[in-house]
Design brief:
Elements (H helix, E strand, L loop, with lengths): L4 H23 L16 H7 L2 H34 L3 H15 L2 H14 L6 H26 L2 H9 L4 H29 L3 H6 L7 H9 L6 H26 L6 H5 L3
Helix pairs in contact: 2-11, 3-4, 3-6, 3-8, 3-10, 4-6, 6-8, 7-8, 8-11
Length: about 270
């Protein structure tokens, strides 16, 4: 008989991890203002959320920032990954090491460093500085994921295309890029989800002209927690879940087996 202890530990882990999230979702449908007593189901707080111009404007700002960060990080991250794989010797190893630094650096350090950089350059924190900071932070995610995928590709396929008369650019465009397309899309979707609900960088670099949704929620909670915040959190949770599900389903959309996790891990 197998031990039940691992299953018990796993159950406790999921309970501690997801019980608070479940409570937020449940009380977003509460008919009363109470955050501790559930009195009945209602869409009152969702109506209040969608009728609040400040909150919906922050949602639009977060979507805009996440979309720009996704496009910028995908372009730069793809170029970095291909360049690092093509460079041999110590410089290639050094480039791979530098790519990993943002992933292990605490995000609050990155936020403070970005703010000091913009202040030193005389740039006022704004929506533009937030986009630049998010792109800089997200490039490493895309580059690391694509390097894993590139390492799994057979380089002889690209060499065969060049032997048949293709230039190096044509071999990249016709052979390598199509093989990378699913993982590029998957990494872009994951970057969008990460940036959309990112708070630390947004708090340091967004300024006051256009507040993204996480900063707006934090500002509102300092004056008291309203039940509509539960509705906002539930909407953000649902959006992130849809994006992650789409990233996992990408291989089947391209007619391949496996899941997006296989692509992101280079398998």
């Amino acid at each position: 008989m197998k031990s039940r202890l691992p299953f018990a530990v796993l159950g406790v882990f999921f309970l501690v991890l997801y019980a608070p999230v479940a409570i937020v979702v449940l009380f977003s449908f509460n008919a009363d203002k109470s955050l501790s007593v559930f009195t009945g189901f209602s869409l009152r707080w969702y109506r209040e959320f969608f009728s609040d111009g400040a909150l919906t404007g922050s949602v639009a700002t977060s979507v805009q920032v996440a979309a720009v960060a996704m496009l910028g990080s995908v372009v730069l991250g793809t170029a970095m990954a291909i360049g690092a794989m093509r460079v041999r010797g110590r410089f290639g190893s050094f480039a791979g090491f530098v790519t990993l630094i943002p992933l292990v650096t605490p995000e609050i350090v990155t936020g403070v460093a970005s703010l000091l950089l913009f202040k030193g350059l005389g740039i006022t924190p704004s929506l533009l500085t937030l986009m630049l900071a998010e792109i800089t932070f997200s490039v490493s995610y895309v580059a690391v994921i694509l390097r894993a995928r590139l390492a799994a590709l057979n380089p002889e396929v690209e060499e065969a295309a060049m032997d048949l008369g293709a230039t190096r650019w044509q071999a990249l465009r016709l052979v390598t890029f199509p093989a990378l397309a699913p993982v590029v899309l998957a990494s872009g979707i994951l970057v969008f989800a990460l940036v959309f609900d990112d708070f630390v960088l947004a708090a340091f670099t967004s300024g006051t002209d256009a507040q993204p949704l996480p900063v707006r929620i934090y500002s509102a909670m300092r004056f008291g927690i309203r039940p509509s915040i539960n509705a906002v959190g539930t909407v953000m949770l649902a959006g992130s879940a849809v994006l992650i599900a789409l990233a996992l389903a990408l291989p089947r959309l391209f007619g391949r087996r496996g899941t997006g996790l296989d692509l992101l891990s280079g398998e």
